[in-house]
Amino acid sequence: MSGRHRRPHATWPSVWVRVASTGLVVGLVTAVLAGGASAVLTTDPAAAATGDELTSSAVTLTTKDDALVAEGSPFPDLAVTVSQTKDLVSQGIVVSWTGGKPSERPAGTVGGTNFLQIAQCWGEDPTHPGHPDRRTCQYGGTLGAGSYRDGTTEASDVAEQDLPYTHISESFFSPTYTGIPFVAVNSAGIVDEEDAPADRVLTNLTTNAEGKVVQKTGADYVDLNTNQFFTAYTTNEVKWAGAGADGSGSVPFEVQTNMQSTALGCGAPIEETDGSVVGRSCWLVIIPRGQGDSGSSEINRSGLWWDAWEHHVAVKLEFKPLGVRCQIGAAERQLAGSELIAGAIAAWQPELCQGEKGSPFVLSEGNEADAVARAAGTAPSPLAFTSRPLDVERIGGAKDPVVYAPVALSGVAISFSIDRQPHPIDASPEERARAGLPMTEVNLTPRLVAKLLTSSYVDSLPDGASKAHIGYKSFSEPGKNPRTIVQDKEFQAINDPEWSKQIIVGASVADVLAPSGRSDIATRLWEYVISDPAALAWLDGAPDENGMIVNPWYSTNPEVNPTGVGLALPLDNFPKADPAEKADTTVSDPANGTGPINLVTWRPYTQSFADGGYHVLRGDGNILGAWDRFAVPAKFGKSVRELFGSQKVFALTTTPAAALYQTVVASLRNPAGQYVPPTRESLAASAAAMTATPSNAQVAQYDFSSPSVRAATTSYPLAMPVYAALNPKQSDATLRAVYANLIRYAAVDGQEPGTDVGQLPPGYAPLPAAWVTQARAAANEIERGGSTGTVPPASAAAPTSGSRPSAAAGAPASAAPAQAGAAAAAEPVVTGEVAGALAGSATPDDPDVGPLGGAIPLGVAVGFLAAVAVLAVSRVRRRT
Question: Domain check: are 735 and 796 in the same one?
């Protein structure tokens, strides 16, 4: 692919479009509906626009140079940076600014003071080129004061530019009405509502026989704010984005494509005159709101009305075209397994269609163990993607016949969106002034992760259900288990002191959103938990230092667990083990009663790990809504997501998804005792510290007990490699050649970081050089159907680490945190014992995989050098 065009500086925070056409990449549909990734994850949203990896498509707008009308703006010195404006897909971006003023949150009928409003629009204003047409903006769906499209006012307060959208009342009993119409995009791209198709226009105004604008009434009335195009459940607008005492702030913004909003149509494929295909562009508009509206001393009118709208700044958003353009009629090939590879496959897919061995691929995300077991047979199967070797007991205990090719390095992340709610008395005036602004840093230990996974905080259990088993009897006898992680003294001790001044409560900060189903990701997270003696002891039933106990239904101790059987960890899923239930009260209390609420109803699963990241971007804690007794059958609804300023949610996700949605991520304590966030550098440091798994020298793992991991101070503890896995003895030679082509591309051209077609999306770290060597060798073995027998077995020289931790067998001791003032621990070094030969003698059906095993120890060394080089370069760049 040497002739493929590359941009000199690829945009950093974007990711190639998650495919949604013709069913290509089945496992990515959820991500397409939601979003995708950043090259370096960050614990500070503003860093997306200011860090070393600043995207080349970031744009800074100022009131002075870019406002439609600068004079009279509430923030004359405003400078807004949009982290990404090109190569967009369904994803998150960051809008950060300086030059604002200290904000106050919305309250009652007042929309707040000194804040920004942000919306996505699809059409350009023909009378003001370079600015969006306000009729095309998705705005009004939040139903908040100062955020509707329409409202009433005095005729004398109506700006001239709003008169076409205003019914001037001549009656004292009927106030003047202004409503900005909404025009949805259509194939012709017509903005003017008079020419646009009637079913794509929402307006409450018409012109009477006398030529006057009048308001529609009766059956002709439409709701401009809740309609068939957007509602409070679907809109992506930000109605209030506040600044701190210095007038600066930042907020994540969900960029929607035609998949999420057909009314906007962003990214819809448009064929140019030269035959090329581009995505339909859109606009991002930022509207400054001060302390009052025209004719009002408060903010209680629409930001689309001219007195606010005239001061907006806006930037054009360029989208990648939706869909994958593979040759029509090409045979689709099946892939199966790890969700961690989904973003990369979507990015590589357009290039993988090319050539004699190219093909469109369909990734079915699911349990990796099942996928690799199927790939171990000799009958044709989907190419498996896994982070763990085959459990040979599934094939009768024979030697593992699978060849493993490393194709990606990513990991698990814990994303969060939590806005400040300071205590009205205990918090300082400075802390109270930051109310509504986001918390941007969280440190977590394995035991804190265990608490989030085990429904052990009081608010994680349904209201109305008995919580006595975790110590809670009543409000006056709450027991020693905190309501949420925010009130946990262990959490407060290792995080910013400002956390202890917050009064944030609720189910969405008492647990972590997680998907159902089995996965290597779940296993890895539980292994991280039980690698820590304190977490393991707590799960066994020992209270923590403050008296908090594990929910006994999750205890690993059979004498504590009410089932009489301890929870066997690590698990490959996230069980809702507590049977606590709020009883059905529809009969006993027909007016106010509700149906039963169990743990699954109370805290629903997400659809996938990527979906967890999407929930965090939107501030959606997946909270149970009100009981609708009039529905047939009666049922619970879903609560509307929390808007910026009052968000509070934790979720499990992947590093590519967290980067795609540009969510804030937690720093996790690694075995060296350091709190490390997932970044490209920390993932590379983890790879450098990995050793071969005991059962198969071809597969590397981050062994929490190994000396190399304990010395890896900068490593991220939930880094995970992804391997393409297949038995090279499978009978379909053509299919094997296609899979080999995918592996070669993934390991070589596909490791170039960037957002162009075929590049490695943000959220992944490039493979160490020796891993690439291993992948190439594996591709050769798969394509030719087995080894030539000229290379020694892969296990002969590969280092191995100790057995993986088990709650039953006991976990290894964790490294103590580094002492204050002590010298920094050494960077990762290659360690481990030489593995013996795998059980069983060679047979004609056992493939000799050539140099694959030798690539593991070499990969550790080369990976280490690469990690050091990356860190050195980044340090030099920061100095300059």
Answer: yes
For 531-558, the pLDDT digits (tens) are 999 999 999 999 999 999 999 999 999 9
Structure tokens at 2: 């040497």
Q: What is the pLDDT of residue 578?
A: 98
Q: What is the pLDDT of residues 184-197, one digit of tens each?
A: 999 788 888 888 89
Eight-class DSSP state of 62? E
- Rounded to 5 degrees, φ, ψ at 253 are -135, 130
Bridge partner list, 201: 183
- Helical (H) or strand (E) element with 81: strand 79-82
Q: Give the pLDDT confidence score for residue 325 in this predicted structure.
A: 64
Same domain, 167 and 266: yes
Instruction: Give the largest CA-CA distance in the chain.
Output: 97
d(CA 410, CA 680) in angstroms, rounded, equals 9
pLDDT confidence of residue 328: 65
How far apart, in whole angstroms, are the C-alpha atoms of residue 204 and residue 731? 66
**Closest of 247, 282, 245, 242 to residue 262, by C-alpha:** 282
Structurally, the chain folds into a number of domains equal to: 3
Considering the domain architecture, whether residues 838 and 748 belong to the same structural domain is answered as yes
The two tokens of residue 727 are 């038995």
Residue 105 one-letter amino acid: R
Whole-angstrom distance, CA of residue 792 vs CA of residue 803 = 25
Cβ atoms of residues 125 and 133 within 8 Å: yes
Per DSSP, the three-state class of 278 is strand
Helices 769-784 and 733-747, packing angle to 10 deg: 170
Q: Which two tokens stand for residue 160?
A: 């001239």
Pair (645, 743) in one structural domain: no
Same domain, 62 and 164: yes
Query: Is residue 163 a contact partner of residue 184, using CB atoms and an 8 Å limit?
Result: no
Q: Long-range contacts for 136-139 (Cβ within 8 Å, ≥24 apart)? A: 136/182, 136/183, 136/185, 136/191, 136/264, 136/283, 137/182, 137/283, 137/285, 137/304, 138/229, 138/230, 138/235, 138/236, 138/237, 138/256, 138/261, 138/263, 138/264, 139/235, 139/237, 139/302, 139/303, 139/304
- Of 291, 317, 343, the residue at which a domain comes to its end is 317
SS3 for 866? helix
| Predicted local distance difference test score (pLDDT) of residue 55 | 47
pLDDT at position 666 over 70: yes
| Phi-psi region at 701: left, alpha or beta (left = phi > 0; alpha = psi -120 to 50) | beta
Q: What Cα–Cα distance (Å) separates residue 42 from each residue in 509, 648, 663? A: 20, 18, 8
HEC profile for 613-643?
HHHHHHCCCCCEEEEECCCCCCEEEECCCCC
Closest C-alpha to 746, from 336, 325, 343: 343
List, for residues 252-305, the tens digit of each pLDDT value: 999 999 999 999 999 999 988 888 889 999 999 999 999 999 888 999 999 999
Is 856 found in the same domain as 818?
yes
Statement: residue 484 has pLDDT above 50? yes
Q: How many CB atoms lie within 10 A of CB 67?
A: 23
Name the 3-class secondary structure at 110.
strand
Question: What DSSP designation does 834 have?
Answer: E
